[in-house]
Amino acid sequence: MNELAELYQQVLLDHYRSPRHFGRPAGAEREAEGFNPLCGDRVKVYVDVEEGVIRALGFEGSGCAISTASASLMAEALQGRRIEEFERLFAAFRATVTGGAPDREVDLGKLAALAGVAEFPMRVKCATLAWHALEAALHSPAGGTTVSTE
Ligand code: ZN
After folding, report:
1. Per-residue model confidence as pLDDT tens digits over 62-81
2. Which residue range(s) make up the domain with 89?
3. Distance separating alpha carbons of residues 143 and 141, to the nearest angstrom
């Protein structure tokens, strides 16, 4: 394993073992649940949005290392960011994990640790599960309808 792959492995294990922003943040009015039947991952995303800004973002659930690390890294990356920034980041992240060409203007930061998923098409749904749930939550009415994203 080369040094970069080792570093990425450490980032993923760290976020899997100690997920950041785990739980429902106070004031989160929107939520959506994602389920990945291929792997059995379940993740529920909670978000507090005000004037187009993600004020707080948290998640709960259980799943494999990739789905949990991805949810944790996503929650860390998007605190205080605008919805448009989420959309750009999601597009770049999805392109990265599916082996496509991500927008080079977008800095994935630690999310680049999941780039190796591109070599395992079966795991793409694990990596994007929390993102689809967040997208559903952002488009759901406030007050909490739960959307399942399979
Ligand atoms: Zn999984």
Report:
1. 999 999 999 999 999 999 99
2. 3-148
3. 6
Q: How far is CA 36 from the centre of its chain?
A: 13
State the DSSP H helix or E strand holding residue 149, giving kind and residue range, or none if neither: strand 148-149
How far away, in angstroms, is 18 Cα from ligand 1 center?
Answer: 17
Domain count, the chain: 1
> With 60 as the cut, is the pLDDT of residue 27 above it?
yes
CA of 40 to the centre of ligand 1 (A): 7
CA of 30 to the centre of ligand 1 (A): 24
With contact defined as beta carbons under 8 Å apart, do 109 and 92 qualify? no
CATH number at residue 30: 3.90.1010.10
> According to the model, what pLDDT value does residue 141 have?
72
Q: Residue 9 Cα, ligand 1 centroid: separation in angstroms?
A: 16
Task: Return the number of other C-beta atoms located less than 10 Å from residue 13's C-beta.
Answer: 13
